[in-house]
Amino acid sequence: MTQQGGTSNDGCIFKINTDGTGFSKLLNFNGAANGNNPAGTLTLSGTTLYGTTNIGGANNLDVFLKLILMEPDIQNCSILMLLMAAIQ
Predict the structure, then answer these.
(1) Tens-digit pLDDT profile for the chain (88 aa)?
(2) 16: how many CB neighbours lie within 10 A of its CB?
(3) Three-state secondary structure call for residue 56
(4) Where are the alpha helices (DSSP H) in the chain?
(5) What is the DSSP letter of 31?
(6) Which residues, 6 or more positions from 43, have their beta carbon under 8 angstroms from its beta carbon?
């Protein structure tokens, strides 16, 4: 996962084999639709990845994402929660 890069320079999620082959982008972040500047690490549970972004979503705050992994790529990306106000 990168904080910048991808088609909108808002970050992306990629996959790569442990030997360095098979690189491909799985998801481009694009601001309002699914957040930007992903933060922290991704958590894998079965075939689902969970992650967060620092910015983005309808209120330009954090986004919590659920990404369903199916070969060969992510088949579904859903936003679990958009923050409506900054957490103090």
Answers:
(1) 888 888 889 888 888 889 999 888 888 888 777 888 888 888 888 878 888 888 877 777 777 887 777 655 555 555 555 444 444 4
(2) 10
(3) coil
(4) none
(5) B
(6) 49, 50, 51
Bridge partners (DSSP) listed for residue 2: 12
| C-alpha separations of 27 from 40, 69, 76, 86, 87 in Å | 16, 11, 10, 26, 27
Task: Tell whether pTM > 0.85.
Answer: no
Between strands 12-15 and 48-55, the pairing is: unpaired
Residue matched to tokens 């309808």: 58
Amino acid making up residue 3: Q
CA pair distance 38, 20, nearest whole angstrom: 22
